[in-house]
Design goal:
By secondary structure, this protein is of the alpha+beta class. Helix content is about 35%, strand content about 15%. The protein has 5 helices and 6 strands. The strands form 3 sheets. The chain has a two-stranded antiparallel ribbon with strand order 1-2. Strands 3-4 form a two-stranded antiparallel sheet. A two-stranded antiparallel ribbon has the order 5-6. It is globular. The N and C termini lie far apart (about 50 Å).
């Protein structure tokens, strides 16, 4: 079987399906968590709430991006939703033990969890 690739994606594999933007009261369809209008806004707000420069640099590092991608490939569905028999695509790779609690666990795969945006919000609202 011959595979055709476009922009690094195999065209024979199904892509992400469309879903509603996660921004409150927005009904635009997107393949990501937020539509184009809200993704920049949410990212800007997220970054403004982060004060730790070392943490910001870490989340932009090649080491983290590689580990995050490995985790997403290993667990492409939200691990929390799966315990409830729900199949939800992963949006975020979450540190179980936060960086500020133990910096040494930042690149430990077993300290990472694939979660959807909704479950990630619930984790941090506790």
């Amino acid at each position: 079987m011959a595979y055709t690739f476009e922009k690094g994606r195999c065209l024979c594999m199904p892509g992400k399906s469309y879903k509603a933007c996660a921004y409150m009261h927005c009904h635009m369809l997107t393949k990501d968590t937020y539509c184009d209008t809200h993704s920049k806004e949410v990212h800007k707000e997220y970054k403004s709430n982060r004060n730790d420069k070392r943490e910001q640099q870490f989340y932009s590092s090649k080491a983290w991006i590689n580990l995050r991608n490995v985790k997403r490939q290993m667990n492409p569905l939200c691990e929390i939703c799966m315990t409830k028999n729900k199949l939800t695509p992963v949006d975020i790779v979450h540190h179980i033990v936060e960086l500020k609690e133990d910096w040494n666990l930042r690149l430990t795969l077993s300290n990472c969890q694939s979660v959807c945006y909704s479950c990630h919000e619930k984790i941090h609202s506790k």
